[in-house]
Write a structure and sequence with these properties.
Length: 106
Amino acid sequence: MALREFRDRRGVEWLAWDVPPVRAYSPERTGRERRVSQAAGYTPERRVQPDRRGKRAASGLERGWLCFQCESEKRRLAPPPPGWDAAGEEELEAFLHSARPAPLVR
């Protein structure tokens, strides 16, 4: 994942980074018990909710996206353009203008 900082023509400072479609840091759950020995009287936890790590991306974001964020705004461009991390500031600004607004979580 690359992270870029740039300033647009209005002087606004932006951060840009790519978001992969699937988080690769967490292994898939098999459902089998991982504990080898169990304490007396132990009953395994029965989760009511399904595994939340497998959340699906919103429609159109299945292949990942490029995120742009400044102090007051956030935008997404899906899928990330090839070579965006080596693009010049003018090209990054063009990508920024074609991105869609996204909720800004603070």
